[in-house]
């Protein structure tokens, strides 16, 4: 039987891979030399604490409680989707039992109420066992008829998580009882791992599509045909223009808005397009709790600018931190090169907080999004532009003046974000362990208010802007409505479905449980 398509939710998964290289007795196949471990996702700690890696499920350590819940256990992210962890063997093996030691970060083991065990052979997954558990238990042993496999996979469906697991799958150790198959069949572990990574990403896409489809259907029931339908209508615009013409305070306010917007008129479309990051904004600052790897601190320990892409400057010592930067180990004096592919840099021994992860690349992506659409969380260190939120200043300048150039630059920002917004998987903010938004979680609600208003103010110009259409056509992939041709309608479709539609989905999903200081229904 092929692996089931377990519909639920979520955005593109990232899959983490690790190799285990310790030879052990052949009865626990998880400890064979060259076994690869793969997971659909990995828990990201809000404080940058490292742990929960997929390789921990086959490290020989069954401890899943206390510190072991982090240092010897793997945990998935908290999206309500199918979560999987798999082992790829270096040769075909026969298996007859899998023992799962569950993670236990608090008092109760996080035993799923329902999970599957699957084996991979001859190019497809076959079911080894389907298991249901009414009560939590620290260890679950599952026996089945001996089967030849090249990989095994534990699958938790979207509705199968422990009630106390916050939708996560949490595994301390997998033990696989069996032996090498005869005759020997060598497995290309890297090729198979790559295939399984692609499968996992595809499944996450399918579940994401299933989750958002009903909400997008509502958002697209009726196409938006004109602007000035939100909190600023045409009467407000006319009244505002009269105030600008007759009242000094309004004239000064409008002059400030235009001054900010004029700065962006001087920037090329390519420059603005390039500011919207294609990668996930996984952190609001390099390290929310511990600040600089050398000087410590917490949030607000760094500054960044638009003119120095992906570089952070420590406020205390002035050091520049970025992927590829060379820094001196404060204890040993040795030169250390920072490597950050977007998943953070792990500080080695000798730094103020060894074992902490610092998100220099991801936090700069968040800085860019904040700078354009809301406000950066970590400080601006002196960018040439120091005005109000660009997307709003441009939209308001258009509303005040009717000058289409302002709308054009505004739509370059908005349309590019619309192309990317649904691909983001959110950041773990300092105040929260959850990961539910596209850009952030709680803070995202402030940003989306600007997006909604800006889209409404410039809407009337979107379909008429031939220069805009040519610019994005040059980037490719602009037939957003799928009718086989590129017209202005593709751009309003993109904004309504892929930006405002997903904003609506985000608000609709989080409204039931976002309260306290971050009340969603206030919108």
Strand content: 15-25%
The shape, in one word, is: globular
Q: Tell me the domain tally.
A: 3
- Major sheet, described briefly? 8 strands, antiparallel
Backbone CA Rg:
26 Å
> Which percent range fits the helix content?
25-40%
Helical run tally: 11
Features:
alpha+beta, 18% strand, single chain, disordered N terminus, four-stranded mixed β-sheet, 523 residues, Jelly Rolls, disordered C terminus
Report on the architecture of this protein.
Helix content is 32%, strand content 18%. The protein is an alpha+beta fold and 523 residues long. It has 3 domains: 16-208, Jelly Rolls; 234-283 and 361-522, no CATH class; 286-358, no CATH class. Strands 1, 2, 3, 4, 5, 6, 7 and 8 form an 8-stranded antiparallel sheet that branches. Strands 11-10-9-16 form a 4-stranded mixed sheet. A two-stranded antiparallel ribbon has the order 12-13. Strand 5 (114-121) and strand 6 (124-132) form a beta hairpin. It starts with 15 loop residues before the first strand and ends in a 13-residue tail after the last helix.
What is the element layout, followed by pairings?
Blueprint: E1 16-19, E2 36-39, H1 68-71, E3 74-75, E4 83-102, E5 114-121, E6 124-132, E7 139-156, E8 170-180, H2 189-219, H3 234-246, H4 248-265, H5 269-275, E9 302-304, E10 312-314, E11 320-321, E12 326-328, E13 335-337, E14 345-346, E15 357-358, H6 360-373, E16 379-380, H7 390-401, H8 404-420, H9 444-462, H10 466-473, H11 488-510
Helix pairs in contact: 2-11, 3-4, 4-7, 7-8, 7-9, 8-9, 8-11, 9-11
